[in-house]
Amino acid sequence: xxxxxxxxxxxxxxAKATALYARAxxxxxxxxxxxxxxxxxxxxxxxxxxxxxxxxGAEDVVITHLINALQLDxxxxxxxxxxxxxxxxxxxxxxQAGSRAPVTPYRPExxxxxxxxxxxxxxxxxxxxxxxxxxxGIRKLEPLxxxxxxxxxxxxxxxxxxxxxxxxxxxxxxxxxxxxxxxGADGADSAAGTAGAAGAGGHRGSxxxxxxxxxxxxxxxxxxxxxxxxxxxxxxLHDRFYPSIGCAPCTRAISLxxxxxxxxxxxxxxxxxxxxxxxxxxxxxxxxxxALP
Length: 293
Description:
Blueprint: H1 4-8, H2 17-21, H3 28-43, E1 50-54, H4 58-69, E2 76-79, H5 86-98, E3 103-106, H6 110-120, H7 129-148, E4 153-155, E5 172-175, E6 209-212, H8 220-230
Parallel strand pairs: 1-2, 1-4, 2-3, 4-6
Antiparallel strand pairs: 5-6
Enzyme class: oxidoreductase
Main location: cytoplasm
Pathway: Sulfur metabolism; hydrogen sulfide biosynthesis; sulfite from sulfate
């Protein structure tokens, strides 16, 4: 990862992410073929059964591009939390306008957001992990439950390289997700309905949705090679050293040598970088504090 200061101290604008990071691995073509096969497998479940969860990050714009390029009937949803960067909202509009597959934003309940802010303040997430997870629950997990209602499978842009907690992910997983609300700090009750055997390198966990993770084995360089090769539209925050982009108050740029997700909830322990959408029960909890914004 290039240093921010090394590219900006001379008064020059930062280089494009495509120029900085596009480095395909030796096995990229095989990975791409496997990813395409996984997406076709997901699409075979039917448009009413499967959906892509997109954060509009680099991983997700690649998946959306593949869904459209392969002309797959897979609808897409975005959790529009009410706290996204203006750059992310602009990309959402462009994606909705240019995507063959429908792209639907899911927003939190206004009353729940306002009650949280009145009770705890705008900056509550910086005071404790419990409050931060409560905010994520209102802004992400409850809308996620609505987006996944009636589905038997979903597609995510997780990658093994992103963090130690994700290092052993299969390409297909049976994952617990919210059915009707948030259950505790790590996520939710299982969603109703399950898909068939995971197969193809997947494994069964507890009852829940089948989670397709078609980019699990891709590197950061693979992603940007694909984006550069196909001219995929992406969030300009990536050009400003934001490899992982979430809500604006909880995301910052990173520096040379930092973990790809270290810009998320950076005041918490480095290894605890989950909002609850993909956290496992043994996800570490905060043990020391970093400087607040």
